[in-house]
Amino acid sequence: MKTLLLSASLLFLPLAAHAACAPTDFAIKDVKLSANGAGGTTRLVLSGELVNNCAEPAAAQINIDVKDASGKVIQSKQGWPAGTTNIAPGATARFDFGKRFRYQSDMAAYTVSVISVRAW
């Protein structure tokens, strides 16, 4: 019985040695915010790239806060740039979440952050 437990623990030990990817293992780059059109037909573009700097394939959820000139968050949305697909180590996933936001004339700034990580 002891041999069986020892064998099982040695089998699963390499799995425990691998640390899971964390939000800090991902980078967000080349984020651009722009508005096209006028009035009620204004379309927002809020695009960028999510980079996986983790040693394992994984996906990340991002949060985007749009703020007014005083820094107050006026809209906030979350999403998975790669959907339910893992991003390979060193690879990127492009995103454009502009369609998720409703244009407001007092939009002045935004922040984008990685809030969670998952391997599908």
UniProtKB/TrEMBL annotation:
What species does this protein belong to?
Rhodanobacter soli
- UniProt keyword terms in alphabetical order: Signal
**Protein origin, superkingdom:** Bacteria
Q: What is this protein called?
A: Spore coat protein U domain-containing protein
The leader peptide range reads 1-19
